Amino acid sequence: MFLFFGTRLRRRSLGSGVFHCPFCYDQRSYEHADVRTWFHVFWIPLVPLGGGQEIVRCTVCGGEWSPAVLQLDASH
Questions:
Q1: Given strand 5-21, what is the order of strands in its sheet?
Q2: Which of helix, strand or coil describes residue 42?
Q3: Whole-prediction pTM value?
Q4: What range defines the domain where residue 44 resides?
């Protein structure tokens, strides 16, 4: 019998919108999410490992930043 286990990231969406992406240098859409690592057996998440982390992810380039990036001035 094989036993498949490991860890996996799971995202929970907190919202979305438009922001000035620091990598693209342009207005882009973003996803605001809570990311948490889970221990899984047979790809079924069983136990969360550590606390969640809020991120802002650009939907164009895939870059991820802290939510503070939403407060930056687009003129810089």
A1: 5-21, 26-41, 44-58, 64-65
A2: coil
A3: 0.73
A4: 5-71
More confident residue, 2 or 21: 21
Look at residue 28 in the predicted model and tell me its pLDDT: 94
Apex CA 21: angle with CA 56 and CA 25, to 5°?
170
Residue 76 lies in a domain: no
Residues 6+ apart with CB under 8 A from 21: 27, 28, 30, 58, 60, 61, 63
* Domain assignment of residue 24, yes or no: yes
Average pLDDT score over residue span 49-70: 92
Exposed/middle/buried for 73, CB within 10 Å: 0-12, 13-18, 19+? exposed
